[in-house]
Design brief:
The protein has 175 residues and is α/β, with parallel strands linked by helices. The protein contains 7 helices and 8 strands. It folds into 2 domains: 124 residues, Rossmann fold, CATH 3.40.50; 43 residues, no CATH class. It is elongated. InterPro entries: Flavodoxin_dom, Flavoprotein-like_sf, Protoporphyrinogen_IX_DH.
Length: 175
């Protein structure tokens, strides 16, 4: 018997939506934006995969799955930072209780940004981040800081379809 899978997401600028589409295609899963999912319907699925962008220490829309029971929960985050060098534990600990965290598998993916499409709040946040980095002594800036300054106020896209492979393999191991 095949398991019923839902991929749902909150995407402001498109990267999370793109990853959700790729994941749903690979898994032949139902795909819905989080805003159109009735929380009561989550229990109808054997596996729920939730994707949310990272913004100021939060995961966009994640309360849909942290405040409503899911049989098997997988969460993927999408942000600008390189997942291979980023410590996500402060964000994860802020958004998940220890008990929920024990029962949730997490994946981190890299998105993109187009400064021309940012809303005023996000533009202000990015400007504040730029100012914080510029105040650091040059010798204390890491690779992420340098990359941020080099790409500030431009359009960059780090989306990579192959980066979903470990998530797909994990789900296939559950089937």
């Amino acid at each position: 018997m095949s398991k019923k899978i839902l991929v749902t997401y909150t995407s402001k600028y498109g990267s999370t939506s793109q990853y959700a589409q790729w994941i749903a295609e690979k898994l032949n899963a139902d795909l819905f934006p989080a805003r159109s999912v009735n929380p009561k319907d989550l229990s109808q699925y054997d596996i729920v995969i939730y994707g949310g962008g990272l913004y100021a220490g939060g995961i966009a829309g994640v309360k849909l799955v942290t405040q409503n029971p899911c049989k098997n929960l997988i969460v993927f985050t999408v942000g600008l930072a390189d997942p291979s060098t980023t410590d996500y534990s402060p964000i994860i600990n802020k958004n998940f209780t220890p008990q929920l965290l024990k029962n949730t598998k997490l994946f981190h993916l890299r998105g993109g940004i187009d400064y021309k499409k940012l809303g005023p709040v996000h533009k202000t946040m990015m400007a504040m981040m730029k100012n914080m980095i510029q105040k650091k002594p040059v010798n204390e800036r890491d690779g992420e800081d340098k990359e941020f300054l080099d790409t500030y106020n431009s359009k960059v896209n780090f989306e990579n379809k192959q980066s979903i492979d470990s998530l797909i393999a994990y789900v296939n191991g559950m089937l």
